[in-house]
Amino acid sequence: MIIVIIMPKNENNPNIKNNNHQSPKKRIALTAGTFDLLHPGHFNTLNFAKKHADELVVVLARDETVKRIKGRRPVIPEEQRKIMIETLKPVDKAILGSLTDKLEPILSVKPDIIVLGPDQTTYQLEELKNQLLERGFKTEIVKVEEYVKCPFHSSYDILKEIIRRWCNKEIELK
To answer: Is 157 helix (H, G, I), strand (E, B) or coil?
Structure first.
């Protein structure tokens, strides 16, 4: 004798596998920067961003973009910076930015939140929000307010100190 028990479909029953059930959408945060000579400010921004999401995607500025904006190329080449950033604990994925459209990586990733570092100058919060809205994309954008103060809180300061120590002279970089 075979007994067949037919159980009604019930979302609350753990014994029933619902193939239509989708796992909850992971919240994605995106932050961007050069991340050339790593310092505590970078880690502060990355940790802040990760606290606001399940996944953190970091967009690294391309060497040519950095040269155009800052007037100098990064010390560490983009592919090497990408390897360094993607191995950091809070980072789930690192991608290189676009050479032609700074919004392209954002529109590709479609983050739930964009985190701007405290010294971010490439993106201004309201300007970025408006540019994304013009392209039909709405997302939360926050700026890290806490600026980590320490002797070497910027890549620029680290570079100046290296030159001072190695060349034994003070210089002003572009």
So the answer is: helix
